[in-house]
Amino acid sequence: MKICIVGASGLLGEGFQHISKDIKNEFVFCYAKNKIPNAEQLDITREDAIKSFFQIHKPDVLINCSAIADLEFCEKNKSHAFNVNTLGVKKLA
């Protein structure tokens, strides 16, 4: 089974990276901005990027850990926060 972890550079995603070593499945890790080794960049605000990613990797399971959690940043960048935290999740579905 191929499992995709979106938002792998965040706190929750890092936890999945650690436990994935003990699980005998194939994992694909994704990040948006904070590059991590052995991971793919994926902008969940872009439908074309999501479609391309799914066509290439064909994951069986997707676990979304992506989020902009910094409240101050979200208040100053409401549109971007909404695009990632709400619309990006909808696009993944």
UniProtKB/TrEMBL annotation:
Domain RmlD-like substrate binding: 1-93
Gene Ontology CC, one term: cytosol
Alphabetized Pfam families for the sequence: RmlD_sub_bind (PF04321)
InterPro entries in alphabetical order: dTDP_dehydrorham_reduct (IPR005913), NAD(P)-bd_dom_sf (IPR036291), RmlD-like-bd (IPR029903)
A GO biological-process term: dTDP-rhamnose biosynthetic process
Molecular function terms, GO-annotated: dTDP-4-dehydrorhamnose reductase activity
Protein name, as recorded: RmlD-like substrate binding domain-containing protein
Organism for this UniProt entry: marine metagenome
